[in-house]
Design brief:
The chain is mostly helical and about 110 residues long. The chain is about 85% helix and about 0% strand. The chain has four helices and no strands. Helix 3 crosses helix 4. The chain is elongated and about 60 Å long.
Length: about 110
């Protein structure tokens, strides 16, 4: 079950890269930066991010529950939520903004 430590962040990175590309094309600010510094649009940004990452988050919870049942013979729901957040949401937040910045930087160099 250790493959979950690779699969979950990889899936989050895939969705984050897709979101970052869309942000760069729409000329939006980096995702996490916009959440922190734009309180007027914070709710819609969080909703947009949640829609993009929800499947990966649910998959992360399911995989952790299966792991807990196999190893511990018991389910610890708070631990499952923490692990799912760390393996799915954190990489998404970090990668989406980075991809957006990178794509924008490449686009400006091509324009020159």
């Amino acid at each position: 079950m250790s493959f979950r430590f690779l699969l979950q962040p990889a899936m989050a990175a895939l969705f984050a890269a897709r979101g970052g590309l869309a942000d760069a094309r729409a000329n939006k600010p980096p995702y996490f930066w916009a959440i922190v510094h734009d309180p007027a649009h914070r709710r819609e940004l969080v909703d947009e991010g949640w829609k993009a990452i929800a499947r990966v988050f649910v998959l992360a919870i399911a995989m952790d529950v299966v792991y807990q049942i196999l190893v511990f013979k018991w389910v610890y729901p708070v631990e499952a939520l923490i692990v799912a957040f760390l393996l799915a949401c954190v990489p998404y937040l970090l990668i989406r903004g980075s991809v957006s910045r990178l794509v924008r930087r490449v686009q400006t160099r091509k324009a020159l």
